[in-house]
Amino acid sequence: MEVFRKLDCLAEEIQQFQPPVDLWRKFIYCTSLSGSVLGSVDHMQPQDLERVASPVSVAHFSQYKLIRLLLKKLENLDFKIHEGDRDIKERKILMGHECLSFAVTDNCVNVTSSFHKDGRTLKKDIQCGFLIGTDGAGSTVRKLAGIEMEGERDLQKLVSVHFTSQALGRYLLKERPGMLFFIFNTEAIGVLVAHDLQQGEFVLQVPYYPPQQNLEDFSPKMCEDLIFKLVGHELEDIAVIDIKPWVMHAEVAEKFDFNNQVFLAGDAAHRFPPAGGFGMNTGIQDAQNLAWKLAAVVNGISPTTLLSTYETERRPIAKFNTALSVQNFRAAMEVPAALGLDPTVANSVHRVINDGLGSILPSGAQRVILDGLFSIGRAQLSQAILNDKNPVGLSRLARLKRIFEEGKSLQLQFPAEDLGYRYKEGALVLDKNVIHDAENVPTGRRRDYVPSSEPGSRLPHMEVKSLSSVSDEVYWIIAADPLLIFEFLWLDNFSTLDLVSGDKVEFVLIIAPVESSYNLAHATLKVADKLKVLVKVCVIWPYNRANNAAPCSVGNYINIVEVKKSPNLPSWWDLCGMNDRGAILVRPDEHIAWRAMSEIRYPSYEMDKVFSVVLGHAYKKPENIFDAQVD
């Protein structure tokens, strides 16, 4: 959502069209949608809605709705959507095209695609500078590049049933609103995703065990009957829209980059269990990371070597998020296991039937055995067993209660990973002599986000205001007399993240209003001008010094002041774990490229080195460090 804030108010539109948070903040565990509730988990904590750690809250929004909004944003940028045989020009979106092959040369990538026209399949050749495979978990681009996936395969096979029922939506709105409903009864087991209770839109996920079961078994009529069993009664207005099988994997591509010309992003580069929203969020981060680097290369700011840092930075994050999503998925399995339905046992039984003695039996007999064993398993959910008066049921319900109270079930929010991920190497300059704590091991538990200004981290959020003159609203050059006092206009509050441009390759240098930092800023702008890269200097004034502030403007400067709802809240530099003699350089993707913890003795030399490393230029150390200084 922080990324979407920069895309022509996309985040605001999502917040406008998404369901109210009170309708999706809970996961509910029940015997049917109209039956007994086994437990529920509220995943929203007060700080999630107060916008302290971030200028925007989490959102719940269907992917197909998001794609519609994204296409609209592209049309606003003069992109044209076409189908069929069209000449390839800039700003074209070719729908219905499939990548068949590609060939990489020193200067370009030649792509052969196919499309349908008048009942015929035609081919089209496309020449491009770069090819980005964002073509999903079964990525053709990845396969054509010969890139393998690494990790755990076939964690679970499922069938996804997309359907609508306004009657069900109205019932759940009134009786038990939630996002996910985990339903366990003697007739059926499934997970219902409530995409929009107000519109009555749902997706049902049910386990799938081929070859004893096949997709033809999941006809619309069979799916309706299955939904009725999980709801607890029939629905007159049910409409099944789509039925699709899918396989849950936990894998990451062995590489994201092919010859610095072909790249993988999103599900093409990593496939996660759908636990915690890591798939889409990690993919959005991929796109943001790659976009500014491609822009820097295309605009002649950086050599193509910068693009190699995409894999260096993003693949470790994908591997960590894979492990975290697996842990979260396994936490989800704790609930059925507590009820006497261990999913690992079901999968083991299925493997025995497929590969063991059961494999010699006719397919019909195999199915009868599988259905019979699953029926015996679901019998553990009968009211005769699952009640307080039955010792077995009492024990299972007590265990279930502990799982919910201790946060050991499936989790929705992971602030520490959503906001606190950090690149360990790449287009950045690491701190010297900094000893890091031991790497956090994914546990599947929620951990709070702790802001950090370490290179590779996302820029921390703080609410600030612009500081400008009332008379003409321009920024003043710092006066020789520091006692000069101006009256200033308080403009609307905004986030420190908004200091970073959303539509150009521009770095931001954040400093405090001290003389040594102004010297650093002056040197930075000189170096940036030499390297043909845009830099904006941001001077952050303490909230209690704003009335005596003399804003500075020597070049591309902006002066802002901290906004505090309470005097006890930390200052900007305290939030960053620094003092006001330091400085922070922020990349176009809102990640920190470099920081100085204290005054820089030779600022021109230092910034020349920093930008060379971050932008991928070859750096030649001057023979005499004084020759590197700029007047």
Automatic annotation (TrEMBL):
FAD-binding domain residues: 1-320
Gene Ontology MF terms in the entry: FAD binding; oxidoreductase activity, acting on paired donors, with incorporation or reduction of molecular oxygen, NAD(P)H as one donor, and incorporation of one atom of oxygen
Any matching Pfam family: FAD_binding_3
Example GO biological process: ubiquinone biosynthetic process
Keyword terms: FAD, Flavoprotein
GO CC annotations on file: mitochondrion
PANTHER family xrefs: FAD_NAD(P)-BINDING OXIDOREDUCTASE FAMILY PROTEIN, TRK SYSTEM POTASSIUM UPTAKE PROTEIN
Descriptive protein name: FAD-binding domain-containing protein
